[in-house]
Each structure stands twice: as structure tokens, then as C-alpha cells.
Amino acid sequence: MLELASRSGPNASARRRIAWFCDLDQVHRDPSLLAAAQEKAGLTTLLPESHHTHTSAFRASPETDRLCPFRDWRTRPGLAEHRQTFKLGPEDFPVLPGILPGADDTPLRAVLDAAHALRIEVWGHWGLWSYGAEVYPELAALDLTGGRLNSLYARYGHGFCPSNPAVNDWMLACLRDAVRHYEIDGFYVDHARYPPPANLQALFSCACGHCEAEAGRLGYDFPAVRRAALALRLALCRLDTDRMRKAGEPVRDLEQALDLLGAPPESLQWFQLRARILAGQVKQFRDAAHEEARRPLPFGADVFPPSVSLLAGNDYALWEESADYLTGGHGAIVAWNLVPVRACRELAAAALRVPPALPESDVLRFFYRLFGLENLALPERVGELDAFDKLPAVRLFELEYRRLADHWGRRVPFYPPFPGWLPAREIERLLSVLQEVGCQGIVLSHVPLDKPDNLSVIRAFAASKV
Ligand SMILES: [Zn+2]
To answer: What pLDDT is attached to residue 15?
Structure first.
């Protein structure tokens, strides 16, 4: 297991990590939250994100700002559409990769000081490729025929090409800059992925020239892989009742799911290639952060839940070679309980738009089965899947946590995203699953300081033996 940063003390590697993906500005306004979360929930690690800049509110040096391919973001034609899609205010930064020029780092510096005074470690944060490309279409991911993606699924994120050197070289510069100028104890990169699989157009990106060149370098026959992916896209439009009936048994993995869809076996390579491209880039970032830091600096990223991870570019085995720890996403777009459900929703909705008309419940059940969700009593109508609060959150989280056992090779620590807001008896059950699976900690997006029963359960987990 990785050594913790020195401020965490010599015995820290035997402790569980209780991390908080917090609102930087909230903690800046009320730093007493840190001591409360440490005392009541066993908080060890802060992952601060400003809801204004969508990073830890780093300020890059003028030299790094000059390299930024997004310097003119304030005057881009796509900015208004982006802000509308993600409900951002007129002063909010767009959700773009790296450190945009113009942030005020006063809150970050204050929170670093407050956290370090309590020996709480701070992991810096920013996002990579999966949002904001509607603001910079010339750098966006392209589909299998070289076309741009439209706005049909934009609410799930409009991704950048993950192989474009203009973006990636600048992000390397941002990373070195942040590691050099801020006393952070680790790094957490968000959005290091393609958009979630509910964005059906993004499933078939990126096939631009940069990615094709990368595929060649990795030993893939890109034209053949592209043909297979096109055949899969066609198969998704040709569901029939015979095929759905064949899906009577539990589906083992993505390879079997593709076969049930009638796609050629080579279509699996499309998803493997995408995963290799991302993992290779993340490894470069991790190695650069280590080189620049010259101090222990855990560098990790969030991945999609096991049920759909490979569809969106996360092959856990590859990521364990590229990152020092793994975690998962939060929020309505990438929360682990919702990503597979939303994929089923969009796949079923798309299939139902194509004649002949098939029974809605049969189509939904087919996709539930492809993702192994068939035993969760999920709705039989597509529209009902939008009522997130009526979905079985506990069972959906538990399913993904248990699936970690088969997907995670345990070569790096795993700190899954954790719903601390659920009732205490439910989070106790979920934490016991994580203990069984061997996870070394959790990441909370909300520390339930107003729920004493929840706090005592989390504190007991924090104190338990790793
Ligand atoms: Zn590309």
C-alpha cells in the first residue's frame, strides 16, 4: 500500500482514509467544519472543489497561462449553451480541462493552512476531458465517421479528444505548476474519462486523427476496429425479440453483452482501445506529478462503476498501472448508483425510437440484463427512471461495491464514492460490504454532520482495521 504524505504521521498507512470531496468555498467560509468532520467522522483527507471554478481554485503561473488553449473562454460562442446545460451562473467558469486563467486562490491557500493545522491532508483536484467541448468544438472528440457530436446527449457531457497534444501538453504544464506552487499532499483528477455511457454518441468517439495515430502506436488495426464499432452502432438500432429472448441467462461481461446485441466480437476492441488511450495519458500525468513533487504525492482518479466501466474508458487493470489509488464520481451524472441506470434509460429510449415497435418493458428488461441489473425491481417504463429518488439507491450501490471484488486487482487502494446521506442502518450495511471487499477507505461528497447515527457508523469504519 502506498505511503501517506509525511504530515499524516508514521502510522498513517495502517489507517483508513475518510475523504471529503468538499465545497472549497463552504469550508473557506466555515473552517470549523474541518475539526467537526475530523472529530465526528474520522476525516483524514480533503478533496476541495470550488463550485465556481470546478477545480481546487488553483491559480497557474503566467507562463502556464500563456500555454492554455482555452485562454479566450470568456468570449467563446458555445459558452452560453454550456452554462445553460449545466445550470452555471454568469460568473462561473465553464467545466473545461485543467486550470483556467483568472481564478482567485485565496480560499485554497486558507483551506490548505486550516487543514494542515489539523494534520488533515489535502489532495488537489481538477478535471480532464469529459465536459465542455461544446465551447471548443475544434478540440472535441469526433465520432466514427469523423463528424462532430451534436447536443442530443450534451447533458451528460460533451467530451474532448483525449489524444490531442495541445490539450494534454498544457495539462501537464498545469499539473507541474500546481504541484510546485501549492503544498498539496496528493492529487485527484476528475473527468479522466469519456462521457458516461448514457451519452450514446460519445460511446462511439473519439475517432479523430490523433486517436487513430495513438491506436496505431498501441498496435491496433484502427480501420478494422472502426468497422466493428460501426457494426455495433448499427446492431443497437436492430434489436429484435429473438435477440432479447436469448438474453435469458445472467450476462457475464461486456464481451457477452456485445454478442447478445449482435455486434462482431472485434467491437470489444473499440472499448479496449479507448481504455488504453486514457490509461496511457493518465500514467503520463501521474509520472509527471511524481517527478515534479519530489515528495510522496498519491495521484489518483475516479473511475466508472464496475458494471459499465469499460464502456466509458475505464479498464481497472490498466488504471491500477496508471494511478496510485482509485475512487469514483459523485453527482447526478456520474454517481455510481445512477450511471448504469441512465445508460439503460438512453439505450432503451433509442431502441424504442426505431421501428418495429417493441414492448417498452421488454426492451428495458433486456438492457437491465446486459448490465446485470435484472434483479433490482427497476421500473418498466423509461420515463420512471428519471425519478432518481424512487430508485433503490442502496441496492444499486451494493451491487457495484460487490462487483469491485471481480474487477479491482487490489494493486492500488480503492476509496469508493460513498452515500453518507442514506439512513444509518443502510450505510452500516454498505460499509460492511466495503470491508469485505477490502476497500481502504471512502470518499464522501457530504459529511452528515447533522446525523449523529451516521457519524458514529462512519467513525467506527474509520477506526476499523484495514
Ligand atoms: Zn481523438
So the answer is: 79
What's the 18 CA to ligand 1 centre distance in angstroms? 36
**How far is the C-alpha of 333 from the C-alpha of 97, rounded, in Å?**
17
At residue 199, the pLDDT reads: 97
**Residue of 96, 144, 155 lying closest to 342 (CA atoms):** 155
Residues 138 and 152: their CA atoms lie apart, in Å, by 18
> What spacing in Å lies between the alpha carbon of 277 and ligand 1's midpoint?
9
> Domains in the chain and their CATH numbers?
18-419 (3.20.20)
Report the half-sphere exposure of 21 (CA within 13 A, side-chain side).
27
Separation of CA 338 and ligand 1 centre (Å): 27
How remote is the CA of residue 187 from the centroid of ligand 1, in Å?
25
Question: Residue 261: what pLDDT?
Answer: 87
98: CA distance to ligand 1 center in Å? Answer: 18
pLDDT recorded at residue 4: 36
Mind listing the pLDDT tens digit for each residue in 30-46? 999 999 999 999 999 99
Contact 306, 416 (CB under 8 A): no
Ligand 1 centroid vs 139 CA: distance in angstroms?
8
Question: How far is ligand 1, taken at its centre, from the CA of residue 205, in Å?
Answer: 7
Q: List 20's β-bridge partners, or say none.
A: 46, 444
Positions of the chain with pLDDT lower than 70, given as ranges:
1-14, 240-241, 245-248
380 CA → ligand 1 middle, Å: 37
